[in-house]
Design a protein that fits this description.
This protein is of the alpha/beta class. It has helices spanning 17-32, 52-67, 73-80, 93-103, 122-131, 151-162, 180-190, 221-225, 228-246, 255-268, 275-280, 403-406, 414-424, 433-452, 468-475, and strands at residues 7-12, 41-46, 83-87, 110-115, 139-143, 170-172, 204-212, 281-287, 289-291, 294-296, 314-320, 330-336, 343-350, 368-374, 378-386, 394-402, 458-461. Helix content is 35%, strand content 21%. A 9-stranded mixed sheet has the order 16-15-14-13-7-12-11-8-17, sandwiched between helices. It has a 6-stranded parallel sheet with strand order 3-2-1-4-5-6. A two-stranded antiparallel sheet has the order 9-10. Helix 1 crosses helix 2, helix 6 packs antiparallel against helix 14 and helix 9 (228-246) crosses helix 10. It is globular and about 75 Å long. 40% of the residues are buried.
């Protein structure tokens, strides 16, 4: 396997949940695969005073847990040589002076500042590394979502970070874009001729995009109660998946060609505001129930949550894209916590045949393309076939591509792919500034209308599929969520 360039990766928030669960295990796997040069360095930075040995013990435990059976003591010995720890407070010039000494003499290496922190630290850290002359032509900064809490705050962060780093050096990350199935969706659309004639109004009846979670808010109460599902998941993950589904074929694989087309989709989204928001959205909040057979408390009883909170843990909405390709085709998006099962999927339902010559009650077996992102990754196309036996009895069957069965080798997880792209300077799978701005511009009026009309979240039982109103939202058009079919 070809190695990436030698790099210094400074991981701010290096002792946090994301770093321990995702980023460090991903870097371990890349190292174990031979994709990291031996003179690269991973410099974890956090406010806590820890020795290198104490920090490595935490990383070892986390990698062993999250890498699983592939964890290997010999590979760990190789990986730990790359890892060091720096106590850094984002507002301490003394701490950044110490980091400057660590990085000195390696200005020719790729230098990555990965912000695995809250968005309030993005700009202060960017300005601190500038003050201490740490920004080189080979530097990049990676900004985790959420980038701000609305359009104004996102613009403010982008202004300050953009004063330090050029747009080509800023990698705004959405890990859903690194998933193998999303890559295959791009290939499915732009590497084959089969679907192109069908990928449009008149052929597609409607599209559903679901990102469902079994988990609650965990230890994120302070963050989540100020954010909610609309801004935490809908603004980024779901709108990004919508862009991938709806974008026009780019002329080339150039990162800006791909991102230009995504921006066009976001700008073509029909705005929702005022009373339209109440008609086209559903806001929910989970109450006590059972998930996976175990009882769970309601959102208002979660530790750290304001008992009078009106923060939504679920949102469903209906959107239209006003373009020649998609005019009149409804897109239904939903996300929520404490739902029946973990699931991320896209369902493209095609129009029925214009004249059915076989008996088929209730239009059973409409052609559907199912793209599953998690927990399993795969693609299935539902078609009608004759059931064996006498008579012409039709039955829906799936033509399936199971990635685990088809491709036996280990696949990169999302953060492995995206970290590799950062180090190699590949921007295709990262958000551009105008793309982020267009997403917030569409989302903000929804939240404002909820506030204006005091639209309180509808209760749903933990372990269900969300509020009944979400079924009504799609049912008014004669459709149903896939799990309800």
């Amino acid at each position: 396997m070809q190695s990436s360039p030698t790099f210094d990766l400074v991981l701010f928030g290096g002792s946090g949940d994301l770093a321990m669960r995702k980023l460090l295990p991903a870097l371990y796997r890349r190292t174990a695969a031979g994709a990291v040069t031996t003179d690269s360095r991973i410099i974890a930075a956090a406010r806590t005073q820890l020795s290198r040995e104490e920090y490595l013990a935490q990383v070892h435990e986390s990698c062993e847990k999250h890498v699983g059976e592939a964890f290997d003591a010999e590979r760990w010995a190789q990986f730990e040589q790359l890892v060091s720890y720096q106590k850094i407070d984002a507002h301490s010039d003394e701490d950044f002076a110490s980091l400057q000494r660590v990085l000195q003499g390696r200005e020719d290496k790729v230098r990555v500042f990965f912000m695995s922190t809250g968005p309030d630290l993005f700009a202060p850290v960017a300005e601190a590394v500038q003050r201490h002359n740490l920004v080189t032509p080979n530097s990049r900064i990676v900004l985790e979502k959420p980038l701000g809490h609305d359009r104004v705050s996102a613009a403010r962060i982008n202004e300050r970070v953009g004063a330090v780093f050029s747009e080509q050096q800023i990698f705004r990350i959405d890990h859903y874009l690194g998933k193998e199935t999303v890559q295959n969706l791009l290939v499915l659309r732009f590497g084959n001729t089969l679907f192109e004639p069908l990928w449009r109004r008149g052929r597609v009846q409607h599209v559903q995009i679901t990102v469902a979670e079994e988990v609650g808010i965990g230890r994120r109460a302070k963050f989540y109660d100020q954010t909610g599902a609309l801004r935490d998941i809908m603004q980024n993950h779901l709108l990004q998946l919508l862009c991938i589904i709806a974008m026009e074929p780019p002329a080339t694989r150039d990162p800006d060609a791909m991102r230009d087309e995504k921006v066009k989709v976001l700008r073509a989204l029909r705005p929702l505001s005022g009373h339209e928001v109440l008609q086209h959205t559903v806001r929910g909040q989970y109450k006590a129930g059972a998930v996976g057979g175990a009882p769970v408390v309601g959102y208002l009883d979660e530790p750290g949550v304001n008992p009078d909170s009106v923060t939504e843990t679920y949102v469903a909405l209906k959107a239209y894209i006003d373009s020649w390709r998609w005019a009149g085709v409804p897109f239904y998006l939903r996300t929520g916590k404490r739902l029946q099962e973990k699931q991320a999927e896209i369902v493209v339902t095609f129009e029925d045949v214009p004249h059915m010559i076989y008996e088929q009650p209730n239009h059973q077996g409409l052609n559907r393309l199912l793209i599953q992102l998690q927990p399993e990754e795969g693609i299935a196309l539902t078609v009608r076939a004759k059931k064996p036996g006498e008579g012409m009895v039709l039955k829906p069957v799936d033509l399936s591509l199971d990635f685990c069965e088809t491709f036996k080798g280990r696949r990169l997880d999302a953060y492995e792919r995206l970290l590799t792209d950062v180090i190699n300077g590949l921007l295709t799978l990262f958000l551009r500034r105008d793309e982020l701005d267009a997403a917030w511009a569409w989302i903000d009026p929804i939240h404002e209308a909820w506030r204006q009309f005091d639209e309180r979240p509808k209760a749903y039982t933990a372990g269900s599929w969300g509020p009944a109103a979400a079924s009504t939202l799609i049912g008014r058009d004669g459709f149903a969520w896939r799990n309800e079919l």
